[in-house]
Design goal:
alpha/beta; 367 residues; binds 2-succinylbenzoate; binds magnesium ion
Length: 367
């Protein structure tokens, strides 16, 4: 594979409804798409950085900068035999996993098309149908949350995750559990608590939660180990796990019993697969997280979710929950049993709607 050209585009897409987490509310997405060309084949990747550095340290703007100033110049003109060789071409770039993932993943799409394989098969996926859950933003009241859960369950989703923060936690979780005593329920705090809150967080043990996601600081594995030893609910790490070494450390110190894998957060398919393997070897279940992706990022998430260690429902759900109109065709749809059927077609398995992308583009840079 000769790396011939890469085009960056920033598109703007409005979410159907605002999404509130402990770190803020998102109304509109600024998404960078990567279009790569190699030996006449085109591949696509999506950068999952947020608009603000509140989930991790990256933003749409930092990704644009790092890709155009540092990643592209190191890649253009190089020859690789597989997409998994890309991380070795940019060893001097510290961090910026989301920027790296957007680029690397485009080459995985190319490699899959060249080998005439669906991307999920190229990655080593074994599941042709994946289990789906939903992540629900913080609501104005517990009643509003309960009616939203009801709607998602009617669509078939297999697990409901509630975003929480101090002051918007126990009442909401209690209302959800009371209304739906049997469902698989979890919470995600996006680092809104500290070890001072152990007594408070322990109260969540009463609600039979599948997991509590990232309650403590985004970069602090050690404190999660202290918390995990004092609560019954399984901790799931999200923000803390940026590579396979982090996963090994977290497992060794017992900081979590579950790990959420996000392609962007760990730097692309190559590292995501390593994180998956570490977890599988240690009997730690994994699931695929989401970052409010458009269709290209969503398609990459679906491919990754077919790996055998993905045994819990992920946060990857139907395009129509986020967008009036997605940038891929067909859009991602969920079956009445709360699953996504994986495409048998080569590459991403969805057609990229270039005309729509061009209409949504606010800036473009070719190399
Ligand atoms: O922590 O999983 C998270 C969205 C933005 C940033 C962080 C997170 C999320 C979600 C939404 O939970 C997942 C999705 O529906 O894409
Ligand atoms: Mg999370």
């Amino acid at each position: 594979m000769k790396i011939e050209s890469i085009t960056l585009r920033e598109i703007h897409m409005k979410l159907k409804s605002p999404f509130e987490t402990s770190f803020g509310v998102t109304h509109d997405r600024r998404i960078i798409l990567v279009e790569a060309k190699s030996d006449g084949v085109t591949g696509w990747g999506e950068v999952t950085a947020g608009e603000n550095p509140h989930f991790n340290s990256e933003t749409t703007e930092t990704a644009w900068h790092v890709i155009s100033e540092f990643i592209f110049p190191s890649l253009i003109g190089k020859n690789i035999s597989t997409a998994s060789e890309i991380p070795a071409l940019i060893p001097a770039i510290r961090g910026h996993q989301m920027a790296k993932a957007g680029v690397e993943n485009a080459f995985w799409d190319i490699e899959a098309q060249q080998k005439n394989l669906p991307l999920w098969k190229l990655l080593g996926g074994t599941q042709s149908e994946i289990a789906c859950g939903v992540s629900l933003g913080i609501r104005e009241s517990p009643e509003a949350l309960v009616s939203r859960i009801e709607q998602e369950l009617r669509s078939g989703y297999q697990r409901i995750k509630l975003k929480i923060k101090p002051g918007k936690d126990l009442d909401y979780v209690a209302a959800a559990r009371k209304a739906f005593p049997k469902i698989r329920l979890s919470v995600d705090a996006n680092s809104a608590y500290t070890l001072q809150d152990v007594e408070h967080l322990r109260k969540l043990d009463a609600f039979d939660l599948l997991m509590m996601e990232q309650p403590l600081a985004w970069d602090d594995i050690y404190s999660h180990a202290k918390l995990q030893s004092q609560i019954k609910t399984a901790i799931c790490l999200d923000e803390c796990i940026n590579n396979a070494q982090h996963a090994e450390s977290a497992i060794e110190v017992k900081a979590c019993r579950i790990i959420n894998i996000k392609l962007g957060r760990v730097g692309g398919h190559t590292e995501a697969r390593r994180v998956h393997d570490v977890c599988k070897n240690n009997n730690i279940p994994v699931w695929c997280g989401g970052m409010l992706e458009a269709g290209i990022g969503r398609a990459h998430n679906i491919a990754m979710s077919t790996l055998p260690g993905f045994t819990l429902p992920g946060d990857v759900s139907a395009s129509a929950r986020y967008w009036d109109e997605d940038i891929i065709e067909p859009e991602v749809e969920v079956t009445p049993r709360g699953t996504i059927m994986v495409s048998p077609q080569p590459g991403l398995g969805y057609r990229v709607r270039r005309e729509r992308i061009e209409r949504l583009t606010v800036r473009e840079k070719g190399f």
